[in-house]
Amino acid sequence: xxxxxxxxxxxxxxxxxxxxxxxxxxxxxxxxxxxxxxxxxxxxxxxxxxxxxxxxxxxxxxxxxxxxxxxxxxxxxxxxxxxxxxxxxxxxxxxxxxxxxxxxxxxxxxxxxxxxxxxxxxxxxxxxxxxxxxxx
Length: 136
Known about the structure:
Layout lengths: L3 H13 L1 H12 L10 H20 L6 H25 L8 H32 L6
Helix pairs in contact: 1-3, 1-5, 2-3, 3-4, 3-5, 4-5
């Protein structure tokens, strides 16, 4: 049986990194100044993929403490809301928003989201190993 953490890495993290990696690849082959190598929207998409995956996995987890599941879903919903607000701020053009500050903010939040998701899937893998008979 593959652990939930292995599947998470293969299906969630790698899929979530597609926008970031795609932009970086396109940046490498375009003329200088045509495109920025990183964009806040790509990091926001990565964070959203992680937290939506968290909620989905928790909802299908049978053998876990109900309070823990509720807490994890609440944390993920909170981060989804933060990502949504940050995405809306990227839509504002001109000098109204400091784009560099937004970039740093979304990069840090994406790393925090990755750490939260990693710890969640580490625990899910442990739960599944402790209760293999209850894994769907």
